[in-house]
Amino acid sequence: MLGNLGPVHLLILLIIIILLFGAPKLPGMARSLGQSMRIFKSEVDGLKNDGKKNTSSTTTNDGVVSGEVINNPSSTDQNTGSHRAE
Hints:
Blueprint: H1 7-22, H2 26-53, E1 57-59, E2 65-67
Antiparallel strand pairs: 1-2
């Protein structure tokens, strides 16, 4: 008798069983799934941005790059005789 059930029949039977026994739990499961997806998305975005935060310069939305020059060899002031920071 079970040999005559096709995949469509099994799917319909599964949906009926879920609706009968799992209806009170469905909203909680949907909220949990949505929260899990938000957490997953934020973690993926964090991994994508992780490499960008390690650079010394940042790019703004208008394409301007700002940054700090560290240990620039041309920073000696020849007129005053001061030395560059090392």
